[in-house]
Amino acid sequence: MRFAGLAIGLTVMTVAASAAAQNFPAPGAVVVSGTCSKLVVGKLDASKGCKAEIASVTGPDGSVTFIFSSGGKMLGFQGNGRGIKPGAKKGTAQLPIEVISTGAGNKMTGQVEAKGTCTFANPYAGKPAAIECSAKSTELSFTGSFLSNGKPPRGK
Question: pTM of this prediction?
Fold first, then answer.
């Protein structure tokens, strides 16, 4: 999968997000505010500096990436949005993860194949929604946990 188009989409796409119930993840880029409780890459625990917002980016090819950030660095869990299916818990969905993307500032620069899932609830529902991702590559494991503040995401 190519990530260059997705990185460009993150910086230039705008989504008109209304408070009305919407599908999530939506086309384009949105930012969800709340609390990041866990962000771990291998043995490095970046949870303490994890930013109080997460980005959801849907590329023109249907790829979906949940992007966590800490200390000016980004970690993206990416999968094919057409593979989203209902989660085990009512009101949740699961995205199969195929790629972990990394970057700094506002540019994603690296990627590695990984297998895992992101389980998420709809942050447009008007109540706190969890987004929990975990994946493993041949060398590292990746984990991110986030709880929205219950307010609708904003377009990026």
Answer: 0.84
